[in-house]
Amino acid sequence: MSDDLVMLRPVLENDLPMLEQFLMDPEATGEFQWHGWSDPGRWQRSWAENGLLSDDGGQLMVATGPDRLGFVAWRKVVTSRNSYCWNIGIQLLPKARGRGVGTQAQRLLVQNLFAHTPVVRIEAATETGNIAEQRALEKSGFTSEGVLRSLTFRDGQWRDVVRYSVLRDDTASADAPGRLDSPPATLKPAG
Predict the structure, then answer these.
(1) Of 61, 83, 99, 142, most Cβ neighbours within 10 A?
(2) What positions does the domain N-acetyltransferase occupy (predicted)?
(3) What is the CATH number of domain 6-179?
(4) Tens-place pLDDT, residues 52-103
């Protein structure tokens, strides 16, 4: 893995096979994200439609230099008739875990969403047993809001999750190492 700063960039067509690992390979996905096999063609279909970037959410690659390490994602959560927030998530390959990559990538995603959308709130959730992700979210500026009981079904049982949020005002003085390659809102899929 390169020692370059963590960066986020749009997904390219040649990234799609790597993303498919997260739908087809329990080892790559990791304990807290494996929910069984899923349709690997969904990445290709979504990429062909909109480059995995839309008004309702998207995915960006997490990379250091030429190394693809995983992706971050966000989706719109409607909170009332005239407002919404973002819910974010991250998936990293095993080689990128435990190195601070997730913290940097999530911090960059938060900065990007606050810079380019009018939301005041970004939220995330992780299983209560996923201590590494809880630490990464806290280091990224998120605040724990509490435990939601039996919210997600994985590996034969219902799991509790910890809900986190970060507000626009919370990030006013935050500085993140890393960079965004080209503003994602202006990019279209190649071809």
Answers:
(1) 142
(2) 6-169
(3) 3.40.630.30
(4) 999 999 999 999 989 999 999 999 999 999 999 999 999 999 999 999 999 9
- Measure Cα distances from 129 to 31, 32, 126, 180 in Å: 10, 8, 8, 31
Neighbours of 168 (CB within 10 A): 14
Question: Which residue stretches of the chain are H helix?
Answer: 16-24, 26-29, 41-50, 101-116, 131-139
Supply the pTM of this predicted model.
Answer: 0.85
65 Rama class: left (phi>0) / alpha (psi -120 to 50) / beta: left
Q: Are the C-beta atoms of residues 28 and 70 closer than 8 Å to each other?
A: no
Task: Please report the sign of the dihedral spanned by the C-alpha atoms of residue 114, residue 23, residue 78, residue 152.
Answer: negative
Q: Which helix (H) or strand (E) holds 54?
A: strand 53-54
Residue recorded with tokens 């819910």: 87
